[in-house]
């Protein structure tokens, strides 16, 4: 019996040794990350903590480290999951939302999808107002995720029938009718909880992932939350040494605002980048707009070429706003010169835009067909 006991002990010891060896030798990086992440509590715990991807081709071209934060790995597929979580958290903290309450937002894009995931995980009702110019596929997706969707005529921000103001009135009405559960208009453009999300999560993640060794950050802005929040954190933690640059598409006034020292001009034109560019300085951006070190204006021609380049060279299937950010990171790296580290945001993937970005007909309709280099034309697979 003693012999059998010794054999059992040896087997256990051998098994433990083998397990330790296997853990240390097989995927050590993955094991470290998995231990750090642990088990999260519901879907909202999985928002954030996305990897930084070194873009090898562009890094080699510029002599810099060009890094993209893989926000398409968030549960809802975009960077907007972060803002969605924080505007809901803010409403909870202020007592505006109680269990079973209603969240209302005006959005034509990824914020709605992020809110849909967060609201389902937290048990809130979600109401979305959006311009009726949006695709049926986007409306169907939001409804599939449990949202009540109201497509309304597309009118200017100043018009009281703009989808944002209709969303605000809806929230006020529900709040009066159902005070027991509450309702809130999350107001993503001017609710600074959006900015706070990036001060508390995105900025610290970038700083930690680079070991504090980065020289510049750049991204485009719609609501302004990402650019402002990350800029605020990085400026504070680096004592101002990290530079921050706005990436701006055609049709936005912010590039000219920064270059002119604060003069807004009338908005004109447009861009293929959905949800990016602005005609005003939002509340999320206004505290940090004067902290920016510069801006780069990125044409649609450069953006669409980068969509195809990232797919071909890096295996990254990115949406137009992400590709625009990558172009901006490349240009900022060229401004700074070799041996610098530049970080940008890979906001989302191309999955929701593939019927346009890789369509011969759509590219021609936007006069962008000739922007695709000959060796990348093989990716134009849709008629």
UniProtKB/TrEMBL annotation:
Catalytic activities: O-acetyl-L-serine + hydrogen sulfide = L-cysteine + acetate; O-succinyl-L-serine + hydrogen sulfide = L-cysteine + succinate
Keywords, ordered alphabetically: Amino-acid biosynthesis, Cysteine biosynthesis, Mitochondrion, Pyridoxal phosphate, Transferase, Transit peptide
PROSITE patterns from the UniProt entry: CYS_SYNTHASE
GO MF, one annotated term: cysteine synthase activity
Gene Ontology terms: cellular component: mitochondrion
EC annotation from Swiss-Prot or TrEMBL: 2.5.1.47
Record InterPro entries: Cys_Synth/Cystath_Beta-Synth, P-phosphate_BS, TrpB-like_PALP, TrpB-like_PALP_sf
Annotated protein name in UniProt: Cysteine synthase 1
Originating species: Cladophialophora chaetospira
